[in-house]
Amino acid sequence: MVKKTLAIMAAGMGSRFGSLKQIQPVNGNFSIMDFSIYDAMQVGYNHIVFIVRDEIVELFKDRYANKLPKHISMDFVIQKNDLSDSRTRKKPWGTGHALLALKKTVTTDFTLINADDFYGRNAFQLMHDALFKDTNLNHYLVAYALKNTLSDNGTVSRGICHVDKNQNLFSIEELTAIMKNDAGEIISQTNLMSETLNPNSLVSMNFWGFKQSVFNVANDLFLKFLHTITDFEKDEFYITYIIKHLIENSPNSIQVLATDSSWFGMTYSADETSARENIQTHIDSNFYPKKLW
User: Fold this and answer.
1) Residue 145 and residue 78: Cα distance in Å, rounded?
2) C-alpha distances out from residue 10 to 32, 34, 99, 155, Å
3) What confidence tens digit (pLDDT) does each residue in 62-75 have?
4) Quick check: 221 and 94 in contact, CB under 8 A?
5) Running DSSP on this structure, what letter comes out for residue 261?
6) How far apart are CA 272 and CA 248, in angstroms?
7) What is the tally of helices (H) and strands (E) in the chain?
8) pLDDT for 188-199, tens place per residue?
9) Which segment of 34-43, 131-140, 143-152, 269-278 scores lowest on mean pLDDT?
10) Which of 55, 152, 186, 232 sits at 20 to 30 Å (Cα–Cα) from 71?
11) Is the pLDDT of residue 18 over 50?
């Protein structure tokens, strides 16, 4: 059986949320991540890879051992904090390093997502059909309408995607402090300036589909990153560094797949209530069973 891999970035510290939100229950014992796994299985994914820290790997193994259907294979990849020269730090090196941690385990094209984001089944279907049914060398991004990615409990940062007529990504504009104002407009507030944003602008929520070639690119960029860091404990190697390099050096290599699904997540602890309500609505409509597995 051909492996159709979903890799999940679950090594985060959860500092803003205040706990290990990767496995924070939103319905019974099931987390947002569990609903993503369920959605992925429904559309054809058969290999789940958890990217975790060394301190929590046994927790994840205990949580998922013998729980998923037998045709679903699992791997646990540790995103290490230490480097080959024995230097180490307290927090992981960032999302780009999480991707690179997959290199020895993932040997096919793969999808990569955040653990604490609810993406919706349509997003998994779009990615599955594009990534595993084409024969070209494209990487992919599922992108959401900005209006469907806001939080009621604080500002958010989003990457605004700019695409050409063929839906190829040619830039991502990082904006911070995005929120709705009293007039219902979506704005980005920086210092004393505010910019009104198009609610239908496509944004990245870290839902990527990559070909194997991305590992060589990521490895080279991470080595360069290590020579340019200024704060050893805080600087992070982001996926956006890899994406920027691909855009600049391999034009038309990333295709954007637009979804009208609504995203939700748990950036803030107060987001947990709305996450629970959203999941319950899906269960009440029989879209999800009361027990996923």
Assistant:
1) 33
2) 12, 12, 11, 22
3) 999 899 999 999 99
4) no
5) P
6) 38
7) 7, 15
8) 988 778 899 999
9) 131-140
10) 55
11) no
